[in-house]
Amino acid sequence: MKVLKLINDNRMLTAGIITLIFVIFFGVVGSWFVDRERADVGAGRPAQPPSLDHWLGTDQQGRDVFADIVYGTPGTLKIGLIAAIVGVGVGTILGFISGYFGGYIDSLIRFISDVFMTIPVLMILIILASLLDVMSNTMLGLLIAAFGWMGALRVTRAQVLTMRERAYIQVAKLNGVNDLEIIFKEMIPNLLPFIAASLVGASAGAVLASLGLSALGLGPQNEPSIGLTIFWVLHYGALIRELWWWFMPPIIVMVLLFVSLFMITAGLDRIANPR
Prior knowledge:
Layout: H1 2-9, H2 11-29, H3 65-101, H4 103-117, H5 121-131, H6 137-145, H7 150-163, H8 167-174, H9 179-215, H10 226-235, H11 244-272
């Protein structure tokens, strides 16, 4: 009954989770039934429309579009997940240190964060990606995470600053509870919805950044991803040539992914801010 009540009270979150599970199911489970070689160059005749042999046709290099999307979806999700976990993890840790302990540590962390906030991130990512000889999905995720921790830091710090002055935190300190116990037992459980919302939002931002870099030809070239598919779509002018079976599937997958992440973020925000 509690589960049904939660679903009924937060339909936005439920719909987002179901949509995200569908996207993950399509990529992860689909790879169990689709031959990896069908996503390689020369798997079929170039630029062929959908048929029984190739459900979504083939691209200009003869790759099966369906297989390309199936194997590219997990790669794109991997980039977003790595960037979000590392970026939000670092930002949350620094936010707790800055907000809870204050003083010179707070000033130093805020100064570093403000410096990073002024950096034109997209330009730096383009420069760094162009300097790397070999780029993988993992490396791209870490590269995006290096410039994606400031938002989580600011949100976490703001919440910790208000929480540390509340009565139950002061009572815990008077009872001799050490700082780490207060943080892990009192603060983190109350901040989990905020942290989860930051994680989901960071995932969406990382996926968007990876699509932009890949569309410019600066993403991973040896690992399938939705961004790489979009790069080849632009490179061979699939839109102008009206090869709809080539450019529509990655767009649909990305729309579903972003819509699901938006709904999950909105649902978590409703839990964290019930008013």
